[in-house]
Amino acid sequence: MAARTSPTERQKRLGAELRKMRTSAGMSAEFAAGLLAIDRGRLSHIETGVRAIDADRVRTLACNCGCTDKEYVDALIDMAQPRQRGWWERYRGSLPAGLLDIAELEAGATRMRSAHSVHIPGMLQTSDHALAVFRVVVPPLPEHEIALRLAHRMERQQVLEGASPPEYVGIVHEAALRMQFGGRNVARAQLQHLLALSERDHISLLVIPFAAGAFPGAGQTVNYAEGPVAGLDTVQIDSTHGPEFLYADAQLAKYRAHLDWMERIALPPEASRDFIHDIARQI
Fold this sequence. Notes:
Helix-turn-helix domain-containing protein; 48% helix; 11% strand; 6 strands; alpha/beta; 434 Repressor (Amino-terminal Domain); Endonuclease, Chain A; Lambda_DNA-bd_dom_sf; 12 helices; DUF5753; six-stranded mixed beta sheet; Cro/C1-type_HTH
């Protein structure tokens, strides 16, 4: 099987999990390669996501590494299966790969939590608000890329539609609610959109008011996607050079603690809706 030129985050994550399983068991790369009847170079490519691995080899490695967590192994086998092209693949080559990885991450999440201090979560933005955000990117984006990014963001939101959408918890700071991207009319429409979404059973919108004071991770956008099993959760954070994906155990624990802290100091859902209503009336 030919090597991939640019593995997706899902493929890299599978490789990272297999390597973690191997090293946790104290198994050398040479021994694992022999066990799987492949050469050392191919194993290295599998562990970096550059090459695929079949389900039987995943089972063999898990068995010999003493991994008895059936749900975890089954989830790895599912990750190893060839996938049908997701809708985001239409944008490959036209948008940065990281944006496509975000969409794939969201599509596979069983539950999502996000925290935003200055921006409204992308999953909850109106098209006019999103357009205003894309127009203040440095360096400026060409019009055709703005149109592509806008279409991509609107399609991402479809994961919250349908018969069985994942639970979504959005933690939004008061600063983000008061930022008037696109002007007063766009800002007011955005707040009304948030209120409408917050009425849905699977969406919880929690507001952190200025009065709540300091909290960890205050300046950072955090998206926490829960996987099919706890060990396959992923944190995605934004940076000036694109999205970053984190999944080391210590990193996951840190961001879970951050989000738990934010939820504790945020207003409850009903009070958050009243708070947003008040800001909308002031604009």
